[in-house]
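Narrative of activities, Objective 1.

The group set out to show that a structural description can be obtained from nothing but a protein's sequence at a throughput compatible with the screening campaign. Below is one input-output pair from the validation batch, recorded exactly as produced.
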Amino acid sequence: MNRQVRHIRNSDPCDKANSLRRSKSYSTANVIWSGFQFLIGRREKTFTANRVKSRDVARAAFRALLLHPFPDASIQEVADSWAPRLNVSDHTVKNWLACKTSASIDDLFIVASVHGVWVTMQVVVGEKTREQYLEMMGQK
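Output recorded for this entry:
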């Protein structure tokens, strides 16, 4: 029984990621080199997210993902279509579409999986650059 529990713990991908993070060495040389790379790329090293702006950007992107397969549908039709797939009420989907509430990471993963990675990135990112997203979500 103990072997089975130990085997399950060792196969947990989250545990593997955490142990890799812990084992990574952050020497002074690595930190200095990282700072130098930022300077050469003329990118700011520090970024402070504005939680309200970030939340609004995330909600708008999720709304776009929900609406993407139904370009001419009403809000009710979109809610009726997604609710059973996500195992939530149509009221919850309507709140997402109105950007009143945020979806869970599980719901985001399901919707993104339905679309596929390329369509998801096209809908979410579109023509915006990394800098534009940082500007939309951050404070300098």
